[in-house]
Amino acid sequence: MVPRHARLLVASALAMSPLAATAADLPVFDAHVHYSHDAVEVLPPADAIAVLRKAGLKRALVSSSGDDGTQKLVALAPDLILPSLRPYRTRADVSTWVRDETLVPWLEERLAKSRYVAIGEFHVYGADADLPNPRRVVELAKKHRLVLHAHSDVDAIERLFRHDPRARVLWAHSGFERPDEVRAMLRRHRNLWCDLAFRSEHGSDGKVDPAWRSLFTEFPDRFMVGTDSYTPERWHYVVEHANWSRAWLADLPKDLAERIAWRNGEALFGAAPAR
Fold this sequence. Notes:
Elements: H1 4-16, H2 18-22, E1 28-34, H3 37-42, H4 45-54, E2 57-63, H5 68-76, E3 81-85, H6 103-113, E4 118-123, H7 132-144, E5 147-151, H8 154-163, E6 169-171, H9 179-188, E7 192-195, E8 203-204, E9 207-208, H10 210-218, E10 223-224, H11 238-249, H12 254-270
Parallel strand pairs: 1-2, 2-3, 3-4, 4-5, 5-6, 6-7, 7-10
Antiparallel strand pairs: 8-9
């Protein structure tokens, strides 16, 4: 693992580079932030908010295993945090939630008590999306008018849309799929958006990959950036990731860069208040 001081030096260098400076004022909507119980233990809520503001984030879509972390951040910065309800009470639920009969009542209880704009990020693959728990999650999203933030393969995404053709789905990591497969999915589903969290092949050295540029140009209103702080250590990357995103976004036309950086996130999540 790269030492923390080295990462901070890289972040500082990026922030001071001419390319980053060109886009230094570009707001960023981070569509993939986690603040789970293990992160709360090492990074107090006030410090977490300070990191997000230092990164120049306009908004952050935040979920957490246990949900308490998300609620702590909402209480401190309701202008910044858009809460998403993750169907995990602890990190161990990642691999068991689709079959855990105690999970749905917990979700329903949380939805009755707190405000959210989405359900997720949740992990579901293939035919597991047809199990009772994922089906109920789709129903709850429909009932409460929430976006589904799904870490899924193509098969599971298709099944989620069969459960509710009008569902709004944010595809975490763009499914880790190639641009041609992402294009095919976006053409099939007008209510599918993609985050670019934990991916770097679309932009490096301040340049956008030609295949991804073509995809961004065809679907200018369907992509968002995201850090994915799935472990506490990933919080060290939030500022660095925002600056790195600004660097490759500067290689796109201004309007397209602004859409991916923050306007698409605002259009999907920010226009309507959390319930």
